[in-house]
Automatic annotation (TrEMBL), chain B:
Keywords: ATP-binding, Nucleotide-binding, Transport. This is Sulfonate ABC transporter ATP-binding protein. Belongs to the ABC transporter superfamily. The keyword ATP-binding applies.
Amino acid sequence: MSMRRLSPVLVMVAGLIGLWYLAAVPMNVHEVLTAAERGGAEVSPPSAMERRDMGNWALVLRNPEHLGASWSSQRPRLPAPHVVLVELYESTIDEELNGRRGLVRSGSLSNRSLVYHGLVTLNATFVGFLIGAGLGILLAVGIVHSRVMDMSVMPWAIVSQTIPIVALAPMIIVVLYSIGVQGLLPKAVISAYLSFFPVVVGMVKGLRSPDGMQLDLMRTYNADAATVLWKLRLPASVPYLFASLKIAIAASLVGAIVGELPVQQGGLGARMLAGSYYGQTAQIWAALLVAAALAAVLVWAIGAAERRALRRMGMMA
Amino acid sequence: MTARPVIQASQLDLTFVTADGPVHALQDVSLDVPPGAFVSFIGPSGCGKTTLLRCIAALETPTGGKLSVNGMTADEARRARAYGYVFQAAGLYPWRTIGRNVALPLEIMGYSKRDQAERVARVLELVELAGFEQKYPWQLSGGMQQRASIARALAFDADILLMDEPFGALDEIVRDRLNEELLRLWARTQKTICFVTHSIPEAVYLSTHIVVMSPRPGRITDVIESPLPAERPLDIRDTPEFIEIAHRVREGLRAGYEE
Ligand SMILES: Nc1ncnc2c1ncn2[C@@H]1O[C@H](COP(=O)(O)OP(=O)(O)OP(=O)(O)O)[C@@H](O)[C@H]1O
Ligand SMILES: [Mg+2]
């Protein structure tokens, strides 16, 4: 990326970080004042009962001298960015290099590190993405070739996406558990459930993208449906496929994380929920950052594959 | 016209059913095309030239009348791959090189790899595109793309060539060259050619038969058999015979308008 494209991004990021630091002051003011009071300082109003009913901003205005601790509070509601970065470092590099269970000392990834949990999530994401994308492509081919499928599958596919996944995920996990399926597969199923839909929609559009003349040409050759699919519809749908794969891989990641929430068996979702049980907000944010970075890398990877494929097909200079 | 006609239409009728009522595109079209003829269809926009060509190709089904191609129904002829069709736009597949675009019908029709390579090389030579086999369509000019699409229609052994305004989008000079090439190609291959055009000089220069059509509903108003010799240099367009035929075509077109 050139400097000229990079600098607006940097300005944006700097602005957001500034806002974040600012927001930490009112968000953490209750905890900060409680800690200060415990340390023997004078806060106003002095009683915790009274403070509880007061607005955050009012407390901020009445206790300016104590606010320095807002960014280093022990149990912050909103941890400051550097606190999250420290947590991120400690739960990845530091844990693996120096931790008792880390890679260096034990020879395997520590189950307390985000590297390990990120890989668990990534695994489920990949399996779910492959199932979802494969299913999506098959359904799209069916929909384009069969009127019955067009009329019957599409409405159900749309309905399936209107059910909130957070409500559905525990049910899927319980149902699959009751028939003895657990571990990776239930998460992959939820992940596939979220990712097949954009692929169906994109591929149906792509497979129907050849114009009348391109289809008529095939008719003049008396080509059968399989030939038309293979030599015309599929190649024409490639740009549409990649556009929907980018959405699908991000949806797969979300699906995998949601699938990890109900069962504490590792993964970024499990870390987030554990963090919220124990009030470890920095841990939640660190897991969130790893998830965001994973999403960015996955979408970028699909984009790279897209550029390669289109260049090989001669559709990009 | 002594030999059995390659294309035989009698009292063809076609009405499109559309949302805002029926469109009568062809009415009472009767026509015999003898083998080896070069037939041009000329007429004002919307008079049904494309529709007639598409009927012959079995891409459209007439609502009345009889149509036979190579002694079969039009659809049987299509299944037998009796014709090559050149659309108004080149319509090359952008993900295929020029060579692979030309090979497309050959792949579908199951020609052997060696035969495919030979034929692609031969027809690209014929349309003066040798050396462009590895290029993608967007790397070629519009005229070159159109020639590639003609090569694609020539690659397999169909003895009928249906062409719908193949040179419509090209400038005069390129058009002249392609017209000359097309005549030479027709002489060499002995194909029967149906050719739709808007240009009177083009129709007169190329054809053995000129079919003049009138609009709403599309009918044939005149069929002119050209007395011009088979050997036609470009400057034949300045001879009195040529000008006389062109005049007759123009009269026919005007008559169609005034009705
Ligand atoms: N698929 C269709 N559905 C409905 N009407 C159609 C259809 N195809 C053509 N028509 C109508 O039939 C008439 C003849 O159309 P056609 O395309 O054959 O004209 P044309 O002579 O080829 O015109 P041009 O010289 O502009 O290409 C027109 O009025 C057109 O609107
Ligand atoms: Mg037309």
